Amino acid sequence: MSSLLERLHVKFNPNSRPWTETMKLVRQVMEKRIVMNSGGHQNLITCLETLQKALKVSSLPAMTDRLESIARQNGLGSHLSANGTECYITSDMFYVEVHLDTTGQLRDVKVAHHGENPVSCPELVQNLRERNFNEFSKHLKGLVNLYKVPGDNKLKTKMYLALQSLELDLSKMAGMYWQATNASPLDKILHGSVGYLTPRSGGHLMNLKYYVSPYDLFEEGTGAPIILNENNVPRYLGMNVCVTIEGTLTMNKLPIAPLIMGTHPVDNKGTPSFSSVTSANSVDFPACFFLKFPKPVPVSQTFIQKLQNCTGIPLFDSPPTYVPLYELITQFELSKEEEEDPCSLHHNMRFYAVSYQETVTYELGKFSYNQSTGYNPNWDQNFHH
User: Fold this and answer.
1) Sheet of 299-300: strands edge to edge?
2) How far apart are CA 92 and CA 149, in angstroms?
3) Facing residues of 254 across strands?
4) What confidence score (pLDDT) does residue 235 get?
5) Residue 76 and residue 144 in contact, taking contact as beta carbons nearer than 8 Å
6) Using CA atoms, how far apart are residues 335 and 319, in angstroms rounded to an integer?
């Protein structure tokens, strides 16, 4: 044992090795090039991000590290102020300021779009105070997607102005309807000119809530009633669409200034007065305004044609594929319960309901449905989502 220790001591004793040889070995190690394929590099980044999420954020360095990591995940830049208490998450079109104190506790979060002053965002403040980094990351992704339109930065800025103009007009329409009718939140949803409007905030687009069913007004599980008021209208309750702008293959004339004139409606229904779209208040863009559903919704071929006739804008770049209504309805209902798309559906589906002294079978076929022996030929229609 003693001889072994002596040999190890001689081998690893720095005094037994010339300094020039040690420097040579260090230089060889430094000059080594480790080749890592892209897949391995991505796996390493994924592992580091997983470790980052597992770490508890309880200090200023931990908070800024997490914010910079989230910025990288969304393809954004980031840097800290000189004293390390402000973290800036940046892109060419917008930036986010996160203001912290010396212990890492949040003070404020501000968002600034190109050419605008920073504005405090309550939703982002709430996300970071609750350490809800996933939701904060979704906001950043939404801000990035807002500018995923064709063109250079100058054109993207004009498109953002067009979206702002539309949002201002929609907000005025919502305000005029309330001014004329003094409607409750539920009446706004069901009868309002634009439904119940929630303004764009952070990376969340402007939301228009246009329908809630009686079932939506009860808490899932407990059955407790949901009381709607101006301070309690959940964003994702009922049926919603988001207002945005996206690129198209054709040019469209979009206003870059609000079109509603005045602040008072012209009748007791809250109808506003609009100015005409002219070359002075609009610009041709390779883009269009969109109302986006959170999930695909079954829509009839006839209604699609009515929409196209009303707007003069084709809804599809290429002819869509139409499928039977029952398949779309079933897929739509199943998607509410599944996070991912449901599996392909069979053409004949049976559902059973047990009532007093009998079992009723509902069968959805390709061209009909049966309740016991019933038949409805109206199901033989083509729909698209």
Assistant:
1) 299-300, 382-384, 323-324
2) 13
3) 283
4) 87
5) yes
6) 25
Instruction: Give the tens place of pLDDT for each residue, 300-350.
Output: 889 889 989 988 888 887 888 888 877 787 777 776 655 544 454 444 566
Q: State the virtual CA torsion across 211, 226, 170, 147 in degrees, nearest 10.
A: -90
Q: 3-state secondary structure string, the chain?
A: CHHHHHHHHHHHCHHHCCHHHHHHHHHHHHHCCCCCCHHHHHHHHHHHHHHHHHCCCCCHHHHHHHHHHHHHHCCCEEEECCCCCEEEEECCCEEEEEEECCCCCEEEEEEEECCCCCEECHHHHHHHHCCCHHHHHHHHHHHHHHCCCCCCHHHHHHHHHHHHHHHHHHHHHHHHHHHHHCCCHHHHHHHCCCCEEECCECCECEEEEEECCHHHHECCCCCCECCCECCECCCCCCEEEEEEEEEEEEEEEEECCCCEECCCCCCCCCCCEECCCCCCCEEEEEEEEEEECCCCCCEEHHHHHHHHHHHCCCCCCCCCCCEEHHHHHHHHHHHCCCCCCCCCCCCCEEEEEEECCEEEEEEECCCCEEECCCCCHHHCCEEEC
Strand partners, 79: 88
Residue type, 248: T
Question: pLDDT for 3-24, tens place per residue?
Answer: 656 665 666 565 666 666 766 7
How far is residue 139 CA from its own chain's centroid? 7
Can you tell me the distance from the alpha carbon of 244 to that of 305, in angstroms, rounded to the nearest whole number? 22
Which residues of the chain fall below pLDDT 50?
A: 340-342, 344-347, 367-385
Count of residues in the chain: 385
